[in-house]
Amino acid sequence: MSGKVTTFIFLLITATVWATPIKLTTTFPYEGRIVGGWETDISYFPYQVSIQQLNTHVCGGSVIGEDLILTAAHCLLRYDNPQYYSVRAGSSYSFRDGVVIPAKAIKIHQNYKNNEHDIAVIKLAMPLVYSEKIKAIPLWNETQILEDNTQLWVSGWGSQASWYPQVSPVLRYTSVNSSNLEKCRQAYTSVNNITENMLCAGATEGGRDSCQGDSGGPLVARHQNTTTLVGVVSFGVGCGRAEYPGVYTRVQNYHKWLNQTINELK
After folding, report:
1. Strand (E) positions, the chain?
2. Which residues pair with residue 2 across a beta bridge?
3. 1-31 per-position pLDDT tens digit
4. From which residue to which does the signal peptide run (predicted)?
5. Are residues 155 and 82 in the same domain?
């Protein structure tokens, strides 16, 4: 069992309050062959960012405000040294183009432990300039129910297989379906406790999943051309295994924590 990150790191930062809904005028490009996915352009996923340590991609993240990035706590092991981290936004590549902004502050959940509360906020040293390639994403509503087998989308620059540690230089995405939480608990019984603060998603037949290097990145739902952030890539057993769906931090359970954190980071 491991978090889906190439190098362990901790980042915490805060930002302004939730974004307005992203309405996409185009659909995701279903071409080409993350695991079992397709290469894509950042304009289809403008909220996606690469979190970097010493100019090297380590995790994904999501823009939730002009100077706020949401990611996983396990990505930011050096959260007390934000100067080690930066964020690349507005690029389909993790190593070039777009804009790179240093982290100013980092805040991880105070109760993060054993993959529980695997969530963190990064406050940027300067605000992002929104464009076709950089946009904030709103969060899944606190009271909205995510039905089992809902189609979701996950993106990132992670490995394309658990046995191939090289991250992808180009942004990729794939589709997964939300899993029944109790069945997920049973699958992970000997691995990790699955709580109400987590959600599971994968493919019944396996072969589609987030992987190493995708940690902290977005799991999103789309409805009537509106995209909302449902989960944060957290951990799993291998990548794309039918018996082990990927596990994500359930964003809707952290609205209160995020509001408090953002106020602290002002």
Report:
1. 2-3, 22-23, 38-39, 48-53, 56-65, 68-71, 85-89, 99-108, 120-124, 151-156, 172-178, 198-202, 218-223, 226-236, 246-250
2. 236
3. 456 544 333 333 333 333 433 433 334 332 2
4. 1-19
5. no
Query: Whole-angstrom Cα distance, residue 223 to residue 228?
Result: 9
From the candidates 50, 94, 118, 159, which is the catalytic residue? 118
Please count the residues of the chain.
266
Q: How far apart are CA 120 and CA 238, in angstroms?
A: 23
Same domain, 247 and 166: yes
**pTM for the structure as a whole:** 0.85
Query: Residue 113 pLDDT more than 90?
Result: yes
Residue 43 tokens read as 């304009």
Q: Which of 86, 159, 215, 234 is flagged as catalytic? A: 215
Q: 74 an active-site residue? A: yes
Q: Is 215 a catalytic residue?
A: yes
Q: Is 86 noted as a catalytic residue in this protein?
A: no
Per-residue model confidence as pLDDT tens digits over 169-196: 899 998 899 999 999 999 999 889 999 9
Of the candidates 74, 117, 209, 210, the residue annotated as catalytic is 74
CATH of the domain at 172: 2.40.10.10
Q: Do 171 and 238 reside in the same domain of the chain?
A: yes
Q: Are 34 and 160 in contact (CB under 8 A)?
A: yes
Report how far residue 159's alpha carbon sits from residue 34's, in angstroms, rounded to the nearest whole number.
6
Distance between CA atoms of residues 88 and 102, nearest Å: 9
pLDDT tens per residue across span 183-229: 999 999 988 999 999 999 987 765 554 666 689 999 999 988 899 99
CB count within 10 Å of CB 2 equals 14
